[in-house]
């Protein structure tokens, strides 16, 4: 969830290729200046796109984390309103301001759409430059394994350690499920949702099994893309998604096919952007469509999370398609401090997503013996513990995994010439 937007599935395409190291005298000097300017603009636009991706990741991780934090620490809006009545003070204001967090699970479809975009972007760019390009499936899987599994293993061990402490402080939180070796292996092999439940208190791991399944099937999706085109692939996936929802999801079996459409939406965006002119700008009405589908998802949430998930995925896909054009034509973009801050959180969003729940459960067990509180303020304190802990986890575990994954990338032609 936290791969570079430009580097998720491989190294970026070279910005230029030079057949000879010597510039022929007949080429005017201005041509070199223009080429360097074009390279600079391309790099700046790419950086602006990555900035948008990281900011969306940071927002999604914080949204999901605080959504869970509020559930674990607080009594909930209905109970609070009944107790607070018509009182108006700083406590009630803070509590009521968290009302939109009731839809915090909307962060998950953001992750899925972004994941599809990031994974397919590099291959889409190569395919746009060379229609005969074929994906090296073995190398892709090796890089995904190196990127995901060391972090997952560390997160499972941390969950085991923290939940073991929480279990010794009765009454035990209802969030803690089985922490035995069987549940550990089910989650390690990404079978939660099919062969078992999520591990211990770490209920957020349900999405990680789907991500791993998306990666496992991606080479097939790429092969279909080469044969029938990405729009046709998206249509096929949409049909599979509907059938899977009817056959599996309603029986509480969580398999990637029930969520494949949201992930493929991101891949479709990557493909469309790779094959469109750099200066092409889409209509600002896409932001209106994004807001409309997100609002529809919030309304549908009352009837069930699954339908809301699909609507949110469409809304965030509309937003992403338009937001990726921020860098076009102006190079450095003009994002405000909020986007820059969210981008910082996006750097370690995967770590925050993986470890926040066992931290919240432990804090609740230590401080309140797992009882829900009337005050909303402790939830903010929980976040102040979880966010720095996630950053440390990122530095110690996730960053080395990212470097290991990067070591599997095929060398570019220029790199081979230098070695």
3D architecture notes:
Its EC number is 2.3.-.-. One of its GO terms (cellular component) is membrane. Residues 53-395 form the Acyltransferase domain. InterPro entries: Acyl_transf_3_dom, Acyltransferase_3. The chain crosses the membrane at residues 93-117, 148-167, 203-221, 228-247, 253-272, 284-303, 345-368, 374-394. With 419 residues, this protein is mainly α. The chain has one domain. 67% of the residues lie in helices and 0% in strands. The chain has 15 helices and no strands. Helix 4 (107-129) packs across helix 11 and helix 5 packs antiparallel against helix 14 (377-406). The longest helix is centred in the N-terminal third of the chain and has 45 residues, at 29-73. The radius of gyration is 23 Å and the shape is globular. Residues 4-27, 38-44, 329-333 and 414-419 have low confidence and may be disordered.
Strand percentage lies at under 5%
Helix content: 55-70%
Mean pLDDT: 87
Separation, N- and C-terminal Cα atoms: 32 Å
Biggest sheet features? none
How many separate helices? 15
| Parts with pLDDT < 50 across at least 5 consecutive residues | 4-27, 38-44, 329-333, 414-419
Structural class: mainly alpha
Task: State the gist of this model.
With 419 residues, this protein is mostly helical. It has helices at 29-73, 77-84, 90-97, 107-129, 137-166, 181-188, 206-228, 230-247, 260-274, 285-300, 305-323, 337-347, 349-368, 377-406, 413-418.
Could you name the key traits of this structure?
0% strand, 419 residues, 67% helix, mainly alpha
Question: How are the SSEs placed, and which strands pair?
Answer:
Elements: H1 29-73, H2 77-84, H3 90-97, H4 107-129, H5 137-166, H6 181-188, H7 206-228, H8 230-247, H9 260-274, H10 285-300, H11 305-323, H12 337-347, H13 349-368, H14 377-406, H15 413-418
Helix pairs in contact: 1-4, 1-12, 1-13, 1-14, 4-7, 4-9, 4-11, 5-7, 5-13, 5-14, 7-8, 8-9, 9-11, 10-11, 13-14
